[in-house]
Design goal:
The protein has 7 helices and 3 strands. It is mainly alpha-helical. It has one domain: 5'-nuclease (Rossmann fold, 3-Layer(aba) Sandwich). Strands 1-2-3 form a 3-stranded parallel beta sheet. Helix 4 packs antiparallel against helix 5 and helix 6 packs across helix 7.
């Protein structure tokens, strides 16, 4: 989904991590009511990192998350149908990740992106 700055200026932004994304798409009860409300709010810009697509595909390939198979196959179609913006991984993100203390590369990426105004992770009740 392409973003037009005029349409998103001042809009609250959410950056979904992989679990929040999968739980949203699968209507999993582990996603809190507050998170569901925030994601469903059309006033919010909801972004999904390319890293989430990579993580879902990797876990499926390794046989660790069988229920995500339909999501991997339909990932590119699900994003715009869910009105989620696709957030690419940029070379500048690597520089931001060097200074973060997270052990996981995935968490370092989300932390690096959160410094650009996105809310990180799963909104909690």
């Amino acid at each position: 989904m392409g973003l037009i700055p005029e349409q998103t200026a001042g809009a609250p932004r959410l950056l979904l991590d992989t679990h929040a994304l999968v739980w949203w798409w699968t209507a999993d009860r582990r996603l809190s009511a507050a998170a569901r409300t925030a994601i469903a709010d059309r006033a919010h810009l909801v972004a999904v990192s390319a890293a989430s697509g990579w993580e879902i595909a990797t876990k499926r390939r390794r046989g660790k998350w069988a229920e995500v198979a339909p999501l991997v196959d339909g990932f590119d179609d699900l994003l715009p149908r869910s009105r989620f913006a696709s957030l690419p991984i940029l070379t500048a993100d690597a520089g931001n990740m060097r200074q973060d203390r997270h052990r996981s590369a995935r968490h370092r990426f989300f932390a690096a992106r959160s410094g650009k105004g996105e809310k990180r992770g799963r909104p909690r009740a």
